Amino acid sequence: MQGSALEGSSSDHNQRLDIIVTGDEGSVRLDRVLAVHSPDLSRSRLKSLILAGCVSVVKKVSAAESAIGPARVCDPAYHVASGDTITILVPPAISAKPKGEAIALDIIYEDNDLIVINKQKGLVVHPGAGHQAGTLVNALIAHCGESLSGIGGVCRPGIVHRLDKDTTGLMVAAKNDAAHKSLSAQFADHGRTGAMRRGYLAFVWGLPNRPHGTVDAPIDRHPYAREKMAVRAGGREAITHWEVLQAFNGRDGKPVAALLACQLATGRTHQIRVHLADAGHPLMCDGVYGSHFKTKANHLGPRASAALTTLGRQALHAYLLVIEHPRTGEILRWEAGLPEDLFLLRSALAAAE
User: Pseudo-torsion of CA 176, 178, 180, 182, nearest 10°?
Assistant: First the structure.
């Protein structure tokens, strides 16, 4: 192996790999350099380690310069140079196959091909960095047993779409490979040629200046905060349709918030949250994309302010799901009312009108 790769163990039993960049790796990108020096780790594994903050870089300095300590790098495209030292901390291996866990599910519909649930807040959809257990997948494995489809990958059996951890509402999972293939195709089509529809209820800051509209703006990874998404030229196509259902006034009698019904024509990560924030109407209580709107809460009445504080999550709920049954072709439609925390928020906001 070119360069230096030293293995060791840190205090938390992570495997440590130290690599010195030689300059002849064929690329200056961090992820590609690591792929050359770490053939035992897949490119997807290396990317996930970078994004999880497990990689740090010490830049080479001249004799006249002062050494700078290691800097954690979370961007796979970060440029390294010959002589730089890269350190990777690889967490201990875990079982690749999730185990079933007895987690309560609100099951809306179930047959031999699919299961529809009303996901509760705080439930991660599938295992990943920082969430190896206690996920929807663990719950589905326990409930469905070996019938659960594996076509979506070992860690995501049955999953054809996802909701953020703190977004509530309707999700469908496949229980066999044929259903998984059909549902995946429907979600990839996004209702362009079929009946599939997904509807969301979103409580946002401010009141849009028209009753309905469309946000058509490409989405890509944020250039600096890699855990976030952003509207960026050259990103993937993203289209969100929205309609104002209700306006809410603040203590001064002026509009301070609104309830929107949103429908997705594409399915990008954090799409509704990113699009509405970019349009100047971020979701209420969204600490990632709406943090600059915290002062808006000062315009709420006491009851609404208390409800917002109690909410503690982005005010988003997947209320509508329409699909074509993968076996029978029947058009199935489900609606889920607001969960208690959002129902209380709506009531409190309306009371201030």
Answer: -150
| Separation of alpha carbons 114 and 5, rounded Å | 48
Catalytic residue among 164, 166, 286, 341: 164
Residues listed for the chain:
353
User: What was the pLDDT predicted at 130?
Assistant: 63
How far apart are the C-alpha atoms of 315 and 168, rounded to whole Å?
A: 9
Alpha-carbon gap, residue 85 to 148, rounded angstroms: 44
Contact 206, 256 (CB under 8 A): yes
Residues 6+ apart with CB under 8 A from 349: 203, 248, 257, 300, 304, 307
Average pLDDT over residues 286-292: 88
Q: Which residues of 313-337 are buried (b: 16+ CB within 10 A; e: fewer)?
A: bbbbbbbbbbbbebeeeeebebebe
DSSP 8-state assignment for residue 77: T
> Contact at 8 Å (CB) between 282 and 273?
yes
pLDDT tens per residue, range 270-282: 999 999 999 999 9
Active site residue 286: no
Q: State the average pLDDT over residues 55-77.
A: 76
Burial class (CB in 10 A: 0-12, 13-18, 19+), 231: middle
> In whole angstroms, what is the distance from residue 121 CA to residue 130 CA?
17
Report the chain's mean pLDDT, rounded to a whole number. 88
